[in-house]
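Reviewer 2 asked us to include a model.

Predict the structure of this chain.
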Amino acid sequence: MKHFYLYLLKILFLPIILVGGVASAYEFHEKASETIAESLSDRPAKDFLKQLYKELYYVPVWIHEDRASSFALELFDAIAQDPLLTDDTKLRTDAVSLMKQSKEIFPNGSFSQKITFEFAMSQLYKGYSDYLFYGSIDWGKFASKLAQLKSSEEIEADWVTYGPKQNQYELIKNAIIQGSLAKSLSKNIPKGYRYQAMVDEILKYRALKAKGGWETIPNGTIKVGQSSSSIPLIRKRLAATQELGDCTLSDSLVYDECLKKAIVDFQKNHRLGADGTIGPQTLKALNMSVDERLALLNLNLERIKRLNHRYENKHIVINIPDFMLTFEENGKVKKEMRVIVGEKKHPTPIFSNRVSYIVLNPYWNIPKSIVQKEMIPKLLKNPKAMANRNIEIRQSWASDAAKVDPATIDWNQYKDAKTVPFRFAQVPGDHNALGRVKFMFPNNFSVYMHDTPTKHLFNRDVRAFSHGCIRLGEPKELLKIFAEIDGGVDHRKSEEVLKTKNETQLGLNNSVPVDIIYLTAWVNHSGKVQWRDDIYGYDAIQLKLMKQW
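Predicted model (structure tokens):
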């Protein structure tokens, strides 16, 4: 199989040359392969060039005897046409330089010059594919920052990133077999989360920056019907970003109903109190500079690159800064609902998984960290503290473990202990911390979606109150959706079970992907840019870790 693949690569790469003949081309490629192998023999095993050409059996990718290959031309064109690369970026200047070199080297340059060009093109390919698929955030340094939070502030923050479906070696091999690098590159560009719409927004804001952005609007609360010298500036500001709606630019100082409608839409797009009053928070958002907005758009585009792009018919997305869950079906919104996420000291992790089963009337098995930090201090003050909250204490996690009388235990010995042998579990019922339903996607973070008795918190705009799990504003509506799409969930029977206190597990016939993400700027399904506050402070950290291409 190995020899067949090598033969296939060589046949695919041999140009049909009318002058000089196929034999000459074959001899050139044979010599080039030998030289490439010899040149890389002393390099470290993890060296990119060594790994790349080992995967390709040392067949040259970017050169023929008399010209640069079609793959080289496609790479030049991809970099030249990339809308986000400006003329002063290193990738663009390197590509221009190599394009110029190719005209000087081919067809009459030395064999050594052509091999040097081959290696330089592979480095250009690495740089461009790194930029395109892995992005500009230094995720290694970001992971170190999160580790520092764990050690210094005991904040258990986690962010899992995902790569493209093909790595850089697989991509180039497939490009060779399919005869097109451009097609292989295109297949790996993200299609989800309105990626292209984000690119378009970045280009729009770049154009606004080139025009000088917008003027700062003076502070001062303005209500509909009032007059203010700021009103013409506000109209211009909204017009600049195409958010003025049906209103027209005018010098009128009156805050009229038409402008109010535009302001309400603006407030909704920033998740501000959409009452139409132009107060401090609305003015702060209006006065965010074009540079600040561009930085956030770029940052979040880079985050989208590292999400898990699965393109399945059904998909649950939870965006932490938005405090919202979206159930998508065939790319459209089937259901949106409010959620509560982890507070800043207990942030909800960013990762992907699949909902595989549902539990009705769940026990809340209290994590050991909460037992030590919250439950034991309460027991030290009042031995009946757990009973008052319907929390059972058992000798172990075994299913038949006996109950423990908390008054018989010296809890001081476990206050600072690394482990607690007892199982603390809140029994099912309306007052259970997990409510009546939980949706399970087993993971290393012990995070899941669940109901909650604290319904009043969903009325808040900022909903970061949990220890990391996702509390659902409408859990029974989500249960109903699962009943509609999966034969493993009978809605009528589920409703009957929920009238009892019997814990019941429902297995799904088909798991549903769930992605917990962190976007503070994105384009929604209606095509409108959304902006949210950086509740965990990740923007501030990652903006300092952006690479320059």
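The first strand starts at residue 314 and ends at 319. The two ends are 39 Å apart (CA to CA). We have added this to the supplementary material.
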